[in-house]
Amino acid sequence: MAYQAFSDDSLGFTTRQLHAGYDPSRHHRAKTVPIYQDSAFELGDFERGIRLFSFAEDGYSYGRYSNPTNEVLERRLASLEGGGAAVAMASGMSVIANTFLNLATSGDEIVAAGTLYGGSLTLLKKILPQYGIRGVFVSDEDDASSYAAAITDRTKAIFVESLGNPNSNIVDLEKIAEVAHRRGVPLIVDNTFATPYLLRPFEYGADIVCYSATKYLSGHGTLIAGVGVEKGGFDWLNGRYPQFERFYEDNRESIPEDELIGHLFSKRLRMTYLCDMGAYMSPTTAFYVLQGMETLSLRMERHVRNAQAVADFLVSHPAVKDVRYPGLPRSPYHALAEKYFPKGPGAIVSFRPEGGLEAAKRVLERVRLFDFMVNVGDAKSLIVHAATSTHFGQPVEVREAAGVYEDTLRLSIGIEDAEDLIADLAGALAT
Ligand SMILES: *Cc1c(COP(=O)(O)O)cnc(C)c1O
Predict the structure, then answer these.
(1) pTM for this model (two decimals)
(2) Which residues, 6+ apart, have CB-to-CB distance to 401 below 8 Å?
(3) Cβ(378) to ligand 1 under 6 A?
(4) Using an 8 Å Cβ cutoff, are 345 and 337 in contact?
(5) Collapsing DSSP states into helix, strand and coil, what is residue 254?
(6) pLDDT value at 22 more than 80
(7) DSSP characters for 185-242?
(8) Looking at ligand 1, which residue's alpha carbon is closest to its atom 2?
(9) Per-residue pLDDT tens digits for 130-170
(10) How far apart are CA 393 and CA 411, in angstroms?
(11) Which one of 93, 100, 282 would you pick to mutate in the ligand 1 pocket, going by the greatest count of ligand atoms within 8 A of its CB?
């Protein structure tokens, strides 16, 4: 029988990360996904041009919103995530920004947890408010009732991260999704630190998942990219989203009903925001993300195993006063880690050495294997001083409320040999 693994979502995760979404028989049987480095595509005949521009026919017209290489990535990630549709974008931040713009207009609110990635915080606190969209931060992100209390008639979404930055704190996704759905609001999860291998937020009620593919998905620190995934099935016509009602009315003649209603969010994201604001992924970047994703599950297994070994080492070290990693039994998030992360709660570990800022600086200067860099999710191990980089410029109280002290060091644990990572940290911490 002919090769059909590309369309079989019953295959295992690791099989799908290699095969899902790419049918070689439509691409000269090239086994590697080709890079379609094209600005635009031939429209064919007059009628087909009309169908393409009204999105009535699947196909490619202009590279700002459609490309065959990107489409393989979109389908592959949707399959791994258990979602219905995905949109590739130029960066993680462009996915998050365009997601908010798709959902909220002037006067609207996005309810969010406080321990977000810096770019998302700035977007919600400073940039979107200039356009009348307000970020409303919950008083206690560990308490679902706090999210319920923050929802108003103007709320258009709840936004959280599945593993917070930089301490890998975990929110109770299932409870927050219930709160959101009771009020007809979707739950958006930035799942960048977890990846679909460790956690699939849709299984706990999330409606949209955002990724910075710059991190673990591509996995090698070679590019900037993002992908948004929609589960499908959320009722966008529930009365809260007039812009979706208009969009539905405008397109119901041309686009098949189930396709339109099923994935109204991603259709509008592509047809409105990609089309006219233009943050699509480059096809060459999509190719590199696909290459990286072929080994996602293998890398994540090693990342989490190394992270646990490093966290266990740090906890027992006399020159370390605090370690944050939900895989540690003493972590306040350990129970949630066991529920949501049976394969391991990611590979971001933070710690504070005894001796304050001076001691933290000494560690940074003495590590020989960890690279002093602000990225995460590279196959190589990285270390950064959070207060002067990821959380730069934040008032002390705000930063400390997010668990970032002047001596907090964040580690992104790579896939090296764990004993080398531990020896490097032991050397840097030695007195
Ligand atoms: C890096 C990151 C982003 C932003 O992604 P870019 O690809 O750098 O734009 C968003 N969220 C999280 C959790 C991240 O780690």
Answers:
(1) 0.97
(2) 114
(3) no
(4) yes
(5) coil
(6) yes
(7) --EEEE-TTTHHHH--GGGGT-SEEEEETTTTTT-SS----EEEEE-S---TTSSS-H
(8) 212
(9) 999 999 999 999 999 999 999 999 999 999 999 998 889 99
(10) 20
(11) 93
Q: Indicate the Cα dihedral angle 11, 15, 20, 23, nearest 10°.
A: -100
**Nearest Cα to Cα of residue 243 among 109, 105, 132, 56:** 105
For the Cβ of 61 lying below 6 angstroms from any atom of ligand 1, the answer is: no
pLDDT in tens, 286-307: 999 999 999 999 999 999 999 9
Residue with tokens 């003493």: 330
Nearest ligand 1 atom to alpha carbon 192: 13
Q: Which residue has the tokens 């929802």?
A: 151
| Amino acid type, 19 | H
Indicate which residue's Cα is closest to atom 11 of ligand 1: 117
Which domains can be identified in the chain, with CATH numbers?
5-293 (3.40.640.10), 296-429 (3.90.1150.10)
Q: Which atom of ligand 1 lies closest to the CA of 213?
A: 7
Strands 187-190 and 155-161: parallel
Q: Comparing 79 with 400, which gets the higher pLDDT?
A: 79
Cα gap 65→277, rounded to integer Å: 10
